[in-house]
Amino acid sequence: MAELTVHGAEGAYAVIVAPGALGEALPAFVAARGFTRVAVVTNTTLAPLYGAELAGRLPGGHLITVPDGEQYKTLDTLRAIYDGLLAAGADRATLIVGLGGGVIGDVAGFAAATFMRGVPFVQAPTSLLAMVDASIGGKVGVDLPQGKNLAGAFKDPLAVFADTAALATLPAIEWRCGMAEVLKAALIGDPPLLDDLPPDPTPGMEPVIARAIAVKIAIVNQDRLEHGPRAFLNLGHTFAHAIEQVSGYAWKHGQAVAVGMVAAARLAERRGVARAGLAGRVEAATAALGLPVRFAGLDPADLWDAMGHDKKWRDGAAAFVLLEDAGRPVIVRDVPRADVLAVLDGLREDA
After folding, report:
1. Which of 117, 135, 264, 266 is least enclosed, having the fewest CB within 10 Å?
2. CA triplet 122, 161, 53: central angle to 5 degrees?
């Protein structure tokens, strides 16, 4: 078991990483806080695996189930959660538990931030990606047709319960997607972790997961509202979000981040930010985890256009998180379109 601490807007909250956290630590936390009504928000895949049982363990537990998939991280799904809360008689003292991956954590958290102007919230991530990234730091929201996470808020949870036993039911592709975010954490804040990344799911992952979480916590504790170094957590994400959007979300987030990190490393070399060799190291580490390093069927010009909605850009000027080296992220602004298109052209399998 590992317990880490995040300094949120209204005080510190704990991140518990342990097998069995859903069955033990989370119900004990709810009881200790005196909640008498709890809404567990999850998706159609997880409801029969964990959702119904968890709701049954919690006082006044009510299960709200939404469709599974990034394509459902929308205002329509948010409205469905509101409807479910109202049907269950939820009030401002109702606790919302977001049980699932990053999509559920984001949309359930956004519901908690906005329902009756804010109700208590707990994150219960069940995917590796959500454990090491999406559940930490208080970012919540939904996608709009124009891009990812364009409607949202900052809503700190009361706690995060990462039950590593849930990883046993995680499909292999979702495990690899989570490892993309672990790799990102190593690249921006814990270079020695690069030597400890398991190529396949393995028991006893808690120390690796805790180290990746610690990287994010260290950055979030410095910059909760992303006015500065928190943007480093977006390494590869400007490319990734564009790949997701242009593909109609056929690409999973972790897979898109994998290609995005390779693209960012190549762009860093091309712009003279990093010395030659960085891109090769990033690509090798990415491929070793079974993650993609190329893309097909997407037009680089369309990807560039999609990047125009990236929240780091100002007045139409391109900005990217790049690496000077492992452990040394930087934000580079005014990156020329031609350089980005050249990098993307070099990563096309169908070029």
Report:
1. 117
2. 85
